[in-house]
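Encode chain A's predicted structure.
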Amino acid sequence: MTVSEPLQTLKLAMEHAALPWGLLGLSQLQLNFANKALQAHLQSCRLPPSLGLSLHAPLLQAAENCLASDMETTARLPACPGVWHFTPVMVEGKAAAVQCYVLPEAALPSEGPASGLEHSDRFEVFLDHLPYQVWIATPHGEVTWLNKALTQYAYNHSRRVDLREGIWIDIVHPDDLASVNAGLSRALITEKPTRYRLRIKSHGGPYHWFFATLAPVKNREGQTQYWVGANIGIDGIKQAEDQFRDQIATLRHQLKRGHQELDQAHAALAQLQKLDMVSKLSAGVAHDLNNLLFITGLHAGLLEKKLHEPEHREHVEVIHDTIKKAGRLASQLTGFSSRKPMELSAADPGQLVRDIEQLLRNAVGAEVEFRLHLAASLWPINVDRMFFENSLINLCINARDAVNGKGHISVSVENALLNHGGHPGEHVMISVSDDGVGMDESVRARIFEMFFTTKPEGKGAGLGLPMVKNFMDHAKGLIEVESAKGRGSCFRLYFPRAEPSSAAKPPVQAIAEGEQETILLIENNLDMRNAMAMVLYELGYQVATAYKPEVALRYINSGLKVDLIIATARMPGQLSAMEMHRQLKAEQVDIPMLLTTGRNSEQATDLDSSEYTVLFKPVSMPDLAQAVHDLLHRDPATTQSLHQ
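Encoded structure for chain A:
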């Protein structure tokens, strides 16, 4: 604590006091502060506000004696009413300044200064003029005197109060009694100053906060003669502290919430990065798989054309059906990222489940008791068949793991009427339940997070349930989970009722064949190029091949007459098929172009399907033949986009 701090506190406390009061500096004993009452007194005595004590020997002598003896001294000025009192202001045992105050003549005692508990009238007058509450107690702590400020506050009058023992207990807040009593006891035992906070009740009113100090007044022998206490109101400070405390608590809460949101943002970012990685990986795998299926399908088409015995052609039909299923599976690889739109169509849920019943039984294992219940008269639902099958298989595999290969798993399909907010109306409910280990609330809250798994490392990737959730979102359905630790789990999938499908299967059409038109085939994959060339030859077309657009462009510029260009959408090199085609158009060479791609329609956003016909692999030989035929016999004013 610096010397200036207590002096500044004194100035603030005495500035509006009724007692004429001031502070003298130690260097030249000049008056460097005078409160309003002292300024008025100086003016009444026709003295300048900046009183120079060196011009008034009695005052100067009294101030010097005060500093020399560390005791109070007095002096009078001729033709000026009142007596000047000088006392040292001690800070950490040293005089920091001299305070002076003026008392009326009548306040002086007739004889020497009081000692012990016989307080002089002038001291009481001084304390009564202070703006804060002051009280005096015996060496044993018994309160013997209250100044006017405290009496007026607590009892609403300025008369002396009957200071019976323990009177302060009546006005101190009950919650503060223990701490106040502890502080007073500690001060009486150690005979050292103490300070504390407490609430004191005003007369007929509420409690107010005060900062209290208690200090002993000792004689020359160091014995405590009495105690002086002072209370300064701190309601404003306490209110500000409470506000600051509330603000700090709010800021801490906001900071904690900010950290939580930051952690969630980091987790979401990591999730997105993982999702992007899976999306890119699955897209690449799907692209390569589609190309292989395309080659297989083209060869199967060639084989089918050469076979005439029905029993042999049936084997080729199985190959075609398998290629279609594998193609849907390849498309589903991109389903985790929600980029692949599902092909929803009305279907009988009972028939869908019956079709994969044996697959479900094989998935759960022979040691698991598998039960299937299909209600009668099930409503149709709109689903993507492949996503539906895989979702149900995923749920059954999870149930198998939950029962550890030994237990009960039930699959039930029935109509349901929901009144859930956002999902009211008629639904079909498909449930998968088990009597396995179950899940606690913390696990249940995270089961649809990508890559979250409770299985041992290498046993689960955390992709199955997110895929199921993604499927249900696209189907505009609802998924509910009921589970408890040690009590098994039940997953319920609710699908909105759909209108039954009335579309008849299109009749089988003959494969469109060519009339020796010339087709320029641009494909960098040798196997793909050879397979497509063989199919086109078989369909009756002349075929020229190139492994990149730059070579094809040189063929055309060299005079090759081409009726149609078939090109894969993405190939290595500086020139893409679409850029090559735009160059030909700029040179007034109008040749239709058919694009093929192993990506799905959502990923192939760089392909302008309004300008080009696009075939999405795998595509069958009849579909390829029809697309080629349509382009060769197209109306130049119209375009077509074919999506597989």
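The CA atoms of residues 360 and 393 lie 6 Å apart.
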